[in-house]
Amino acid sequence: MIILGVIIHWYLTVFVHAIYLHRYKSHKQFALSKKAERVFNIISYLITGSSYLDPTTYSICHKLHHSHSDRNKDPHSPANSKNYFDFHLVTIKNFMKVRNNIVKPRQSFIQKFASSIYSRITWIFKPAIRPFFFLPC
Ligand SMILES: [Zn+2]
């Protein structure tokens, strides 16, 4: 049952990331109404929990990644990092820089709340509050 939960959670996370953050928010490959977009954002928050990525910030960083692949302005490039850990630290730093300087003033309530430290801490108690509480992760 635990392995099944991990597999289901993994695929839901991949679905939200690939369809909502990548295909919709970054590349606008399909259209959504404002209401549907809000629903997707909430689903993204509920599925990814403490790993929630602000969709607007993700979109900007992803476009920078495509525009400047493996060059200095690429916010997510192993070519600009010393090792695996540095790669992730640089990516987080760049993500936070974009979020704090460009996106934060325009964030919706759910984006502000989901990106806050208070929200991330509440996921410690996720078995009690998460809709997929039966899932182990
Ligand atoms: Zn892309």
Q: Keyphrases for this structure?
A:
137 residues, mainly alpha, 66% helix, binds zinc ion
Order of helices and strands: HHHHHHH
By DSSP (H or I, 4+ residues per run), the number of helices equals: 7
Bound molecules: zinc ion
- Counted beta strands: 0
Name the helicity range. Answer: 55-70%
Share in β-strands: under 5%
The major β-sheet equals: none
Uncertain regions spanning at least 5 consecutive residues: 133-137
Average residue-wise pLDDT: 86
**What general form does the structure show?**
globular
Structural class of the helix and strand makeup? mainly alpha
Rg from C-alpha positions? 16 Å
Describe this entry's structure for a reader.
The protein is mainly alpha-helical and 137 residues long. The protein has 2 domains: 1-51 and 109-137, no CATH class; 55-106, no CATH class. Helix content is 66%, strand content 0%. The chain is built from 7 helices and no strands. Helix 1 runs antiparallel to helix 2 (34-48), helix 1 packs across helix 3 (55-67) and helix 3 crosses helix 4. The radius of gyration is 16 Å and the shape is globular. It starts with a helix and ends in an 8-residue tail after the last helix. Residues 133-137 have low confidence and may be disordered. The site of zinc ion has 5 residues, from helix 1 and helix 3.
